[in-house]
Design a protein that fits this description.
single chain, 497 residues, alpha/beta, Amidase signature (AS) enzymes, 12% strand, Amidase_CS, Amidase_dom
């Protein structure tokens, strides 16, 4: 590949070179392997390498919009038949996928070559990627910081240039948060737009959606073209989209639009001035383009959103731990998982069916409020996160917290902790850094993070944009326009790699 710089191309750019026979898929795979072997020891982004399978695939006749392009999958839910998939937990170390996920099947049809699987926090439960079994993934912009989570390994791999595209999913911000921390484009689709099966008909009660992390808007749009559509057994279906997401991503918005924005945390916590400025700068830019821009908060109760999100979170963790019996051949114990995971499960066991149903009703109430809001405003803009990425280990529980978690876990005191108000404390501590992203998961709306600002220390700052359910096309149109602005971060110039 003399005179060819792999990192200069996005996924569609590499596919075009393959189509023109200017490069062979195997050459792309070998370059991706070279970069992975060079960079992964510093990043710890990839935990399962599939080199021989990738080489075999690259030697076959490949068709589709991404024919021959190396891609990484996330180590949870994105199964490949016969491959180990661990969800970042030692409990799954001996588990092998029984079939391709529908997500992986559709990517195969798009022509990609699977290179391996990326690191995730245990069961994708938190917004940093530091699983006890695999160790922390580091941010390519600054190795002392987290790339976020739960799609942190995917974000680090794309931001460092190992691959142009990596699989991701988002149940509370897990696409958008790593995108914001790593200077990438990250779109969470509308509920039911992309497949989550066949093992499940719904993921996190519909809060979680599958998609990708990319450096360019057009790669994300073309991937959405490849992934979207009805799924047999899926619990939800998004409003059908008959056009091409790739085409709309390159089409300017036809009319002057109405935009609302807020720089306030929905749970009343602080927001770093740099992250408020990222939104304000974007608002000024959009206003200069002739759009109507108003500062106004979303018409929802942020505290109720946080509490209903956590109710689902606890319940899903408890159900997951119960289902480990099918994997382990026995009931799970505290020693099978990380202490915080076990504690979350105990809180889930202490949550009643009544509480769970009432929390889901809160989702529906918020969805109606936001749909009504979007009858006036096309977009709602906030910071993606409230603070820069934490340093590696910064969010680890303190010694006293670890003692409390261990004691509670051994004695099974989840109910007592709930009554003592520990849920509210967990909400404040864990959501203070990332209070903006959960709303779109509960309402089912599409939302994206755009790399439009940077801290004085050189770390990326994401700006989140939400639209009405089913309107990924509007988000991609806006993203395509803003990608041409001077504010869009050039990752090739700024990332350490």
């Amino acid at each position: 590949m003399k005179g060819f710089n792999y990192k200069d191309y996005d996924g569609l750019g590499l596919a075009e070179l393959v189509k023109k026979k200017e490069v062979q898929p195997l050459e792309l795979v070998e370059e991706a392997i070279r970069l992975l072997d060079l960079l992964n020891p510093k990043l710890n982004a990839v935990i399962n390498k599939m080199y021989e399978q990738a080489r075999k695939t690259a030697g076959k006749k490949l068709t589709g919009p991404f024919a021959g392009v190396p891609v990484l999958l996330k180590d949870i839910s994105q199964e490949i038949e016969g491959e180990r998939i661990t969800a970042g937990s030692k409990a799954f170390l001996n588990y092998r996928a029984k079939a391709d996920s529908e997500y992986a099947r559709r990517l195969r049809q798009a022509g990609v070559v699977f290179l391996g699987q990326t690191n995730v926090p245990e069961f994708a439960l938190v917004a940093v990627t530091e699983p006890a079994h695999y160790g922390p993934t580091r941010n390519p912009w600054n190795l002392n910081h987290t790339p976020g989570g739960s799609s942190g390994g995917s974000a680090a791999a794309v931001a460092s240039g190992i691959v142009p595209i990596a699989g991701a999913n988002d149940g509370g911000g897990s696409i958008r948060i790593p995108a914001a921390y790593c200077g990438l484009f990250g779109l969470k689709p509308t509920r039911g737009r992309t497949p989550v099966g066949p093992n499940y008909g719904r993921a996190w009660q519909g809060a979680s959606a599958e998609h990708v992390l990319t450096r360019t808007v057009r790669d994300s749009a073309a991937m959405l073209d490849a992934l979207h559509g009805h799924e047999k057994g899926g619990a939800f279906s998004a409003t059908p989209f008959e056009g091409s997401y790739l085409q709309v991503a390159g089409t300017p918005l036809e009319k002057k639009i109405k935009i609302a924005y807020s720089i306030k945390s929905p749970i009343g916590t602080d927001v770093d001035p740099e992250f408020r400025e990222g939104v304000l700068k974007t608002a000024r830019l959009l206003e200069s383009l002739g759009h109507q821009v108003d500062e106004i908060d979303a018409p929802v109760d942020g505290h109720k959103i946080a509490k209903s999100y956590l109710t689902m979170y606890f319940g899903e963790t408890a159900a997951l731990l119960a289902s480990l019996e099918d994997v382990l051949g026995r009931r799970a114990t505290a020693s099978d998982v990380e202490p915080t995971t076990w504690l979350l499960g105990l809180l889930g066991k202490a949550t009643s069916a009544e509480e769970f149903v009432l929390s889901l009703r809160e989702w529906d109430r918020a969805a109606l409020q936001m749909e009504t809001f979007h009858e006036t405003y096309d977009f709602y803009i906030t910071p993606t996160t409230a603070y820069p990425p934490a340093k590696i280990g910064e969010l680890e529980p303190s010694s006293s917290e670890k003692f409390l978690i261990g004691t509670v876990g051994k004695l099974g005191l989840g109910g007592m902790l709930k009554k003592a108000g520990i849920v509210e404390q967990i909400a404040q501590k864990n959501l203070a850094r990332t209070p903006f992203t959960q709303l779109a998961n509960l309402t089912g709306q599409p939302a994206m993070s755009l790399p439009l600002h940077q801290t004085k220390d050189g770390l990326p700052v994401g700006v989140q944009v939400m639209a009405a359910r089913g309107r990924e096309d509007l988000l991609l149109q806006l993203a395509g326009e803003l990608e041409q602005s001077e504010y869009w971060l050039d990752i090739k110039k700024n990332s350490l790699f």
